[in-house]
Amino acid sequence: MRHSYQLKREKFKTKQQENRLPKMKNILNLIVLLFFFITISCKENHSVNRDPIASKDNALDSLEKNIEFKQIILKCSGDDYSAKKCISEKDKVAISFLEKTISITIKDIVFKANIENSGELGYQMYLYGSPQNNKVIIFDTFLENGHLFYTYFYDNTSIKYLGKKEVIINEESSILENIRINKNKNELIISFGNSITDLKFNIDKSINSDNTSNISISEIMEKNKSNPEEVTNHLIFTKDRNNKLQINTEILSYIQKNTTAQQNQYTLALEKYVTHEIIKFYDDKNSPWTEEELIKIIAFASNTTDPLHKKFWKESPDNWHNGMWGNILSFCYLVYPETLWIKLQNQLKKESYYNLPYLKEMISYASEFDKFGPP
């Protein structure tokens, strides 16, 4: 140490005046001594006192790697082991099962996925959430000797299909009661206990689910005749990943072509859905739609339902609530004449009635209604 210092000192002499050397020498000696004592102190205390910043980083790193998901209780309608719909109002999640399709709605955005096993022996739906508001959705369809799990992961922007895996259960005592889910980096681990092997999914290798489905519209409509709200309330007006309004015009066309005076369940359900959305926006102040989106929904729905109402209600008035219920545009005209009705007409003119064929005529027809009903 002293030899190294002496060499530096000799070089230093060649650049500085002799009268400054004593002062500089004292300063350098002081720096060396301070560095020596600091080094010794750090070595002695390293094993006793851990760096609090380093400890904090390690804790955060551990939290990021291992995330535990807690089960979210779902309220289901239908049979115990073949529910048609399960919801969690607090988390704004709804899961519906349509024969070979699962429809998952999270915060008004709808995702659909096909499943190969249609659950003839029964099925259950599970929902789990993490502190980061990620979600895991498990569709458990029963097999003769086990379970087939379809697993989905929601990352706050989209739903990813992680895959399906089969679990064989040979003993009746092996009941899936305590499902535990953890996320470790990019791996999702589902544990069952009871000596059943854990299921592991790589999130990075998942497949994004979208708003499309291979199942035909006619099949969906036939399966839900007795429960038309499953279609009208969840599948026609939805939002994409960018929170933009999407309209399923194929379903609207089906309703237009297949409604009769007696078979009008989808028409009435759609009318009811839209009028409730109007009330939620203007009266309850609790709507997922902007006013511009709501008016566009009214336009497309009324272009479908209102001509049908005009055509069929006199033929079967009892089946159309004596002509008093369901004409969407007349509802707008009679209930919100100074707010919605004015804004509706202005937006429709601005958008050239969205190029919808019956809308302009139905606006005129709605203005002929009064408190006693249709003209």
How do the strands and helices of this protein lay out in sequence?
Layout: H1 2-15, H2 21-45, H3 52-65, E1 66-72, E2 75-79, E3 82-88, E4 93-98, E5 101-106, E6 109-114, E7 123-129, E8 135-143, E9 146-154, E10 159-168, E11 180-184, E12 187-191, E13 199-202, E14 207-208, H4 217-223, H5 229-232, E15 237-239, E16 245-247, H6 249-258, H7 265-282, H8 291-312, H9 328-335, H10 340-350, H11 359-366
Antiparallel strand pairs: 1-7, 1-11, 2-3, 3-4, 4-5, 5-6, 7-8, 8-9, 9-10, 10-14, 11-12, 12-13, 15-16
Helix pairs in contact: 6-8, 7-8, 8-10, 9-11
Give a written overview of the molecule.
By secondary structure, this protein is of the alpha+beta class. The chain has eleven helices and 16 strands. It has a nine-stranded antiparallel beta sheet. It has a five-stranded antiparallel beta sheet with strand order 2-3-4-5-6, with no helix packed on it. Strand 12 and strand 13 form a beta hairpin. Helix 6 packs parallel to helix 8, helix 8 packs across helix 10 and helix 9 crosses helix 11. The longest helix has 25 residues. It is elongated, with a radius of gyration of 34 Å.
